[in-house]
Specification:
2 domains; globular; binds benzoic acid; binds fe (iii) ion; Intradiol_RC_Dioxygenase; oxidoreductase; 6-chlorohydroxyquinol-1,2-dioxygenase; iron
């Protein structure tokens, strides 16, 4: 059976398509044989994928979420962004990036009404050879202290996201809010799968970064908060040790940029290192 299906693709003109579809056939058949898939289980699988399709629209991508909880997204990140010595590690992109977020000046605040303890984020953008990368574009986005991104609220408010350019020495700094752990959207079929398998939908607290500069590989990553109880069981397997950072807690007072705070605040330092395009 398997050999006939694999052979049926022999005339595929595109070499890569032939390789992928023949391999997929072999692995899919091996899976069905290994578990001795019953007719009822096959039907349940089809019903599940149909629900995944029905709930997917412009705002919700349940197929990507399925890929995330199965670890396929992180595996693909790993295959395509092999660690370049010294470069910042990559992790999942996630569904909450917004392409037309506002540009903010270096040192200003992306919170824009997002709830949470103020957090001063600073660092540099450099190449693996240590050169600063002035003007690198840094997109950042995060959930508020209740664990929701702006796009998960009614209305079109932009909060907890924006982009800025690194300064002449590759330095960057901005205000945001201290991120909190949150559940991935779990009111659909992927949430049902997590429940049925006794898994948690929670992700540890993180801040998303996308960093781009001409001549360098784009970097998609997170900063995770050290001590978060979900670091060892991220629902989408995105945690890498190098991305876990201590968040320093401060009493009310004056911040590094001179801002005076009446309430406690937080700060983090995180240097972003990009790999030159020639290095891979
Ligand atoms: C996120 O971190 O925004 C995310 C990643 C994968 C699935 C759901 C959310
Ligand atoms: Fe996130």
């Amino acid at each position: 059976m398997t050999d006939s299906v694999v052979a049926s693709f022999t005339e595929t003109k595109d070499d890569r398509l032939r390789e992928v579809i023949q391999s997929l056939t072999r692995h899919l058949h091996a899976f069905a044989r290994e578990v001795r898939l019953t007719q009822a289980e096959w039907e349940a699988g089809i019903r599940f994928l149909t629900r995944v399709g029905h709930i997917t629209d412009d705002r919700r991508q349940e197929f990507i979420l399925l890929s995330d909880v199965l670890g396929l997204s992180m595996l693909t990140v790993g295959i395509n962004a092999p660690a370049t010595e010294g470069a910042t590690e990559s992790t999942v992109f996630g569904p909450f990036f917004v392409a037309d977020a506002p540009e903010i000046p270096l040192g200003s605040d992306i919170a824009q009404g997002a709830k949470g303890r103020p957090c001063w984020v600073s660092g540099t953008v450099r190449s693996t050879s240590g050169e600063p990368i002035p003007d690198a574009r840094i997109d950042v986005w995060e959930a508020d202290e209740d664990g929701f991104y702006d796009v998960q609220y009614e209305g079109n408010r932009t909060a907890g996201r924006g982009w800025l350019r690194a300064g002449p020495g590759g330095e960057y700094r901005f205000w945001s809010v201290r991120p909190a752990p949150y559940p991935i959207p779990d009111d659909g079929p992927v949430g049902d799968l997590l429940t049925a398998t006794g898994r948690s939908p929670m992700r540890p607290a993180h801040l998303h970064f996308k960093v781009t500069a001409p001549g360098y590989w784009p970097l998609v990553t997170h900063i995770f908060r050290a001590g978060d109880p979900y670091l060892g069981r991220d629902a989408v397997f995105g945690v890498k040790d190098e991305l876990v950072v201590d968040f320093a807690e401060h009493s009310p007072g004056t911040a590094p940029d001179g801002r005076s705070l009446d309430d406690p605040w937080t700060s983090i330092k995180f240097d972003l290192v990009l790999a030159p395009l020639t290095n891979r």
